[in-house]
Each structure stands twice: as structure tokens, then as C-alpha cells.
Here is the input.
Amino acid sequence: MNCVNESTIEEFILLSFSDQPRLEFPLFVVFLVSYILTILGNLSIMLVSYLDSKLHTPMYFFLTNLSLLDLCYTTCTVPQLLVNLHSLRKVISYGGCVAQLFMFLALGTTECVLLAVMSFDRFVAICRPLHYSVIMHQRLCLQLALAAASWLSGFSNSVWLSTLTLQLPLCGPYVIDHFLCEVPALLKLSCVDTTASEAELFFVSVLFHLIPMMLILVSYAFIAQEILKIQSAEGRQKAFGTCGSHLIVVILFYGTAISMYLQPPSPSSKDRGKMVSLFYGIIAPMLNPLIYTLRNTEIKEAFKRLIARVFLIKK
Here is the structure.
């Protein structure tokens, strides 16, 4: 293998699922359907949260941000995956790989922080209900969700980690045994010892996976304690329903992401990496709108009002 400068690399080969050629067409159909459902589901939540004045609250502001994140998250990977599943030349340009690496890291990190911010919102709503409107006012929501806490930290981390990864000299042939340009897959192409890079990746994973998850668990420990104090069964059920959707999303996202970035390599890590990336990069964003709509009475009522309004306009 020859070690060369990145500036001479024109494209990478993404093997994706080429080792299972019989599965490529069924997988193409499955991923296309899931992508369409992801777009429709997340756009629907964003639309109804914007149009229904009863949903103009911090909780649904954060949910709209999560839907936008999931929409972007799948869009940076699924179209390229569909093209490669349908094509004999399973390639991605160097620029496309860099863009995919940057966006996937940025959006994934942003979602880690945003889910922690959403748990803080639920903590304030249930444990400090009288102070909720003061603490979670619009300016703080924008700061938490868009600037200081979520988006800014996600993109800053992506700039740092992407730069460190792309500075490593790579060895040809430039074959990535994955369906996307992800840090662990690119590290395997390096001509030099990647121990330091792997240590940095582990540190970042702890920072943006374990710490937010611990904050979420602490928030929900206080929330559970507060809910158990509610006297009426209906009140407890409503509180659990409000928090349950977010908790399921947290388990789906963090469980798979942590198993990807915080477990040591193993003989099966190649196939495991693909499956885990599929789950938190494609399946979870598709399931999130379903989880929130099926378990959230306010969103279901908002959809009913929106549909009724549409039919009235037609009449």
C-alpha cells in the first residue's frame, strides 16, 4: 500500500453491502421507504408545531429542532447509500466524503446535546412548574438549543475531529468498508499509528455521549421522584406520557451510539459498526416522529385540528 497526501485522492470506494449482492435491491427498497417516512414524519411535526399556536412552547420548540436534526442527519447519508446500492461503481468523491464526515459528526454531536437540553426542559416543567415560564423563556430556548448548548457545540466538535482525522496520511487502495465516511472507518485507511487519534475519539465520545447521558439520567431521577408524589393516577399517567417519548428516543440514540464509539474493537466490529450506524443514523430518525406522535396526546390533537382546518378550507 502506498501512503499519499490527501490532495491527490479523488474518490473513495464505499463497499457498503456489496458483500451481500442479493440483499442490495431489498435494502434499496427498505432504505428508500424509510427515508420517505423520515422526511414525511419529521416535516409533519415541524409543520404542526409551527401552525398550531397551542404548541408554541419550549418543549415543542426543542422537538422541532430534533425533527430538523433528524431530517438533516438522514439526508447526509441515505441519498449516497441509495445511489451506491443501485450502482455498480460504489464510490464517493473526496469532497463528498469530507462533507459527509463533517455533517454526520456535527449533527450527531448536536443531537447528543439537544436531547440533554430537552431533558432539562422536562425537569423544569415537572419539578419547577411555577417557575417554568420564567426559566424557559424564548431567549434561553434559542441560546440552549441553537447557539451555546447544541448546534454550536456540535459543529465545533465536528471541525476539530474532522480536521484531526483528515490530517492523517491515507494508504491506497481507498476502500472504506462501510456505507458512509465515518471516523472509525477512515482511521483504518491511515498509514500511521492511529492510537492517539483513537484516544481523542474516545475522549470526545465520553464528553458528548456519557456526560449528557448522565445529566439526562439525573434529570429523570428527579422527575420520577416528583411524579410519584402526584396523587391522581391521571396526573401521573400524563406526566409519564410526556416524558416517556423523550426517554425512549434517548435510549434508542444513546444506546446505539455508545455501543459504536465506546466499545473496544472486536473481530465482529466491522459488521457491528455498519448495523449500529444504520440504526442511529437511519432507523432512529424514522422512529422518532412515530414515538412522539403515538405517545403524545397534544400532538395527536394538533394533527386533528390541522386536518379539520384543511377540510374546512376545501369546503
